[in-house]
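User: Hey, my collaborator sent me this sequence without any context and asked if I could get a structure. I don't really work with proteins. Can you help?
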Amino acid sequence: GPASRADGWRDAESMPSRPVQIFFVLSVCVFNSPARGSSPLPDDTLATVGTTVISGRDLFERIELMPWEGKDRRRTFDSSRVHALESLVAERLLANEAAERGIGFDTLMLLRLDGLEREFVRDALYRKEVADSVSVSPGEMTAGLRKYALLLRVVVFRCSSESAGRDLMERLSAQPGADSAAQPGSGEGLLLRDTVTVEFGIADETLEDHAYALNPAHPVSAPYFSENLGWVVLACIDEQANPRYAQQDVAKQLSSVRDIIRMRKARNRGGEFMRSLLNPQKAVADRQVLGRLAESVYAIIMTDSSAHRSQGRFRLAPEEIDLLESDLRTDLGRELVSIPGGGLSLGTAIQSLRIEPFSSASLRRSTFLFVLNESVK
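Assistant: No problem. I've predicted the 3D structure and written it out in structure-token form, which is a compact way to encode the shape of the chain:
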């Protein structure tokens, strides 16, 4: 009613006009000169918030880190810089206010800050050791463009052994069209038959290489061993133009192929770096603490398993990490994994689930625990 509205306005009038003050402070601080007698500001100073300086380097680091759409486009670059500077100033103002109120120094907040810092360090390590070392040669571009132009329809035969694969290859090569008759059980050693579409950039790079090596003169591959499938024989049944390739101009085709090659080389380089770093190390998990984590995650998902199911997997939503922290609050400081030089606490592991969301294809307890164990590793 009117009385409550009047009370509301009276309360608002009695409060300090912080938003207006902040706007005024922001407007006079940005690009302002230092007061007489104070230390000179760095040449690249863009703003000051209290005693804190926001520099040009801070601005460009923020632009690099933030995923604003269109930030690399020339016509929107100025507005991106404005957004980045505004966010830096606002964050510093909020941080100062939090410090005055004593907010942000509890154990849980320090854990979250530590987790965020770890992710930034990991990203910096990735750029230094992996991304910056990847290059694409002209020969790789030529081969990639040749593959990118075509889509292949390939029959994948999984065989019990190399000799079984060789027998199948000889039979398919001798009888055109025999690939359609070859079914599991129709020949000794044939385990599975499947038809797939192969294009440049699929996850199974070995299958891709063998498929694109086929041609009308040699439509059947020799048996090869796949870590995922075992012994495999391929038979090409059709090829056609890749519509994505056909719809792109030359510059976009080059960009797409370069991106795929860089991504693959970075993934392979990243795997090699991880193995060289981690293989000599020994880490031992505390089964009891891991069990507590598993039970808590399992209980959250089981409150409504259908709501947690997406694309065939049961997923822990990022916003449910707070619930997980609350449930395990008394155990956050316990060591989950012991590692030379400093262990991994349960609280730190939980923070990682914010960046690497957990999911499992099965809710069978033994499988669920195995998948969570792999996630922690």
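In plain terms: The radius of gyration is 29 Å. You can pass these tokens on to your collaborator as they are.
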